[in-house]
Amino acid sequence: MRLEGVTKRFGATTAADQVTLEVEPGEFFSLLGPSGCGKTTLLRLVAGFETPDAGQVWIGGTEVTDRAPQARPTAMVFQSYALFPTMTVEENVAYGLRVRRVASGARTERVRAALARVGMEALMDRPVTQLSGGQQQRVALARALAVEPDVLLFDEPLSNLDVALREQTRRELKVLQHELGTTSLYVTHDQQEALALSDRLAVMQAGRIMQVGTPQDLYRRPESAFVARFLGGSNLIEDPATMDRIIGDEAAPEGKVLVVRPEHLRPSPDGRIQGTLRSHQFLGTHAEWWVETATTSLRAFVGPDEVPSATVRLDATQWRWVDRE
Ligand SMILES: Nc1ncnc2c1ncn2[C@@H]1O[C@H](COP(=O)(O)OP(=O)(O)OP(=O)(O)O)[C@@H](O)[C@H]1O
Ligand SMILES: [Mg+2]
Fold first, then answer.
1. Which of 203, 224, 245 is the C-terminal boundary of a domain?
2. Fewer beta carbons below 10 Å: N end or C end of the chain?
3. Looking at ligand 1, which atom is closest to the CA of residue 41?
């Protein structure tokens, strides 16, 4: 799947701004970014629900930019599931095949196989209005799988599930995608989800791709302040006093900001950064401290048993320079 210089405008908003992106066969690729950055728009451009103002969409070596959705080898799972409320589970899953004029014998086979994949075979005859949210999500997934698409498109499919079910479904989705080997483009604003599921991901801001890489790449080697903050909630340090306490005599590179991950700030009796503990929260695996120095406010993840005191001293164990913008 390849986007080549794709731009999409809605009035004064540029929802996709010259996006070039390639997803490898079989890859699980996520688009991650804040609300309104253009994630859904990119998915819809791939699915054919939108046509770009400029640029091209390619799937498997064929240009599909101007093709109707049903003439593309894609299937989408929507955030709202978008099931047809007057239809049963089976009818919903069969819908995409009917649109694509698959003969009824083959249709029945594929519907059963897709429902079996998601463990919903037993509820085939139920009206979808009589399903739980998690079950509806499975039907929506089965409906996409039944089409046997070359590219699966997911728009925040887990965001309506409660935390426990979301994590369970996330694991199942990863196993399923691995078994099927279907190229997948997955939209989310949840960084944990993107890190957990993706082979590679892109972080987006205001219609643009800011950085592309593996989860490890993006987490460990963010190139910009935006990516560092969006993935992992880094501390961005711009004031010279705090910077000196971290880097010592090293000179600050032009146009760069210092980034320190919360997990790389460690309390130490003779720590070089001194501040006031504004708040501390015990979170089980670790504690979160907000420390205010004379010039900046820092977030630190410390050991869960670390004893809080009014004044604290910290050392940075790792840091990194990133682009200011
Ligand atoms: N049909 C439309 N008409 C006008 N503006 C639109 C339309 N679709 C999207 N936009 C605008 O384009 C921008 C990108 O929207 P998009 O839905 O792609 O964002 P998103 O990243 O999916 O956000 P969210 O995380 O909230 O779903 C937003 O500013 C949005 O208001
Ligand atoms: Mg969206």
1. 224
2. C
3. 18
Of the three residues 224, 256, 286, the one that is the final residue of a domain is: 224
Q: Is 39 in the pocket of ligand 1 (CB under 6 A)?
A: yes
Q: pTM for the whole thing?
A: 0.91
Ligand 1 nearest-atom number relative to CA 207? 14
Residues 137 and 172 in one domain: yes
The beta strand positions in the chain, using DSSP E, are 2-10, 13-22, 28-32, 54-59, 62-63, 74-77, 151-155, 183-188, 200-205, 208-213, 235-237, 256-260, 265-267, 273-282, 287-292, 297-302, 311-316, 320-323
12 lines ligand 1 (CB under 6 A): no
Give, for all 325 residues of the chain, the pLDDT tens digit. Answer: 999 999 999 999 999 999 999 999 999 999 999 999 999 999 999 999 999 999 999 999 999 999 999 899 999 998 888 899 999 999 999 998 998 888 988 999 999 999 998 889 999 999 999 998 889 999 999 999 999 999 999 999 988 888 888 888 888 899 889 899 999 999 998 999 999 999 999 999 999 999 999 999 999 999 999 999 999 888 999 888 888 888 888 888 888 899 999 999 999 999 999 999 999 999 999 999 999 998 899 999 999 999 999 999 999 999 999 998 7
Q: Examine the domain organization and report whether 198 and 285 are in the same domain.
A: no
CA 241 from centre of chain: 35
In short, whether 80's Cβ falls inside 6 Å of ligand 1 is no
Domain that holds residue 216: 2-224
